[in-house]
Specification:
alpha+beta, 3 helices, 3-stranded antiparallel sheet, 65 residues, elongated
Length: 65
């Protein structure tokens, strides 16, 4: 049986932490930023985490990480 390959699209978007959480970047921070407040943009810089079944699905397609 050949080795499982990581899903390359998911590998670019998600990182697994040492504790097993799935870390992701938040959306709405690429363009049209002038109308968004500093507070909102600052909060968007922080990482988001997946929970439940979504996290389980990502862990399944990222076996090498």
């Amino acid at each position: 049986m050949p080795k499982m390959k990581s899903h390359r699209g998911a590998a670019k978007r998600f990182k697994l932490t040492k504790s097993g959480k799935v870390k992701r970047a938040k959306a709405y921070r690429s363009h049209i930023l002038t109308k968004k407040s500093q507070k909102r943009k600052r909060k968007l810089r922080k990482a988001g985490y997946l929970q439940g079944k979504e996290a389980a699905n990502i862990k399944q397609i990222l076996p090498k990480q």
